[in-house]
User: Fold these one by one.
Assistant:
Number 1:
Amino acid sequence: MNMQKIDTAKTGEYMKQIFSFRSYTNYFGQQFSEGDFYLSTNNTFILAKPFENFCRLYVSSNDRDGLTGLLKNIDGINVLNIPTKYDIASWECLMSDAGYENIGTYERFYYQDFRTGGDLDGIIFAEASDIEEIYNLYSGYEGFSTYTDYLPDRVELKQIIDNDFVIINRQNDKITGVYIFSITGKKSVSRLLIDNSNTGLKLILDMFEILHSRGINYASGWVNSKNIKAKTIYELMGAKMDGLKDYTFIKK
């Protein structure tokens, strides 16, 4: 099925369509970028954002059957996320009819209190020379998936490192753990945590220390519902689940 290339000068027109079709939608303010594609009918708008080997889709529709048919006939590997606090039985049925399967469910957690008392001077911030080692560490980890985990490519990783939002554990001159996060205003978002040396708690405490020093009072992140070990660690460190879940569906 042919899709048209996004014209960012027409963002207003696209937005008007999206907000006219709200019966089925997973669009929550995603930006239109050069290189994106779209598909539009009288009752449906689909935004496709290309990644290395797949497209992530954002839809808005008032036509259940029409949306099902369009999703079924879009070529290639396509991924669609449904973030919600509510029952998704209707979405599950639609996705199944369109040939998609659920490959993961993530839960959002948050911190409002940070355990502090660490040593800011002992925190190791990643440098540009660490990019390849860090990228290989998480891109080759079987617990992560490009479809569910929004892993940064090398270009984005460099940008994040330049902003001092990547901290690491290092043992015997080898990077064993990585924590990637972001800060916007007074809030932080945890993006990725991996550690192969059983010292991951240090990375969390280091992150707390950074946030506390910068006056941040809220941090959130996502955890795989099936990763009981990670959920237990986060809750041990004071995290709470807010009820929002993100369901990832894929059609190959």
Number 2:
Amino acid sequence: MKKRGQFYLLAALIIIAIILGFVVVNNYVLSDSSSKLYDLKEELGIESEKVLDFGTMQMNGDNAELLEHFTTLYNEFAGSDKEIYYIFGNSEKILAYSYADENVGTISVEGAGAIGIDKKVKRDLPQRRVEGEEKVIVRIKEQDYSFDLKSGENFYFVIQQEAGGSQYVVTS
């Protein structure tokens, strides 16, 4: 009889260890994807600053075209599992947009079926100015984000990622 009780105690300890193992691994995976998002935030902040500096020095302050090219390339670099929203400009003109996959057609091969062709398309975001203040508010997925406009060129971004059933958001 004594050995039977020891068996149940040992079985209970093994089951508890397995459950704790799953919880620890799950928490590690969730924290790992959010830390990568913060690394991306720091990197995008540094890179955009360098692009703005280059545009100011080399292109006589005409940064809109340069920043649009930069955001196109950076969006491809960041990967498709993240949504990045870009807000830039000065106190006179602000551009706010993101890139989204849009189906532009299909290719069919006889016997193999059809394959969709997606292309990244720039989509403008709704925005509004706050009267009497140097502030712009951008609406992203029914959420308002407020950014202070400083003198000169401004560059802001919002990065969203869904991982493990949770929504992570970082802003500049």
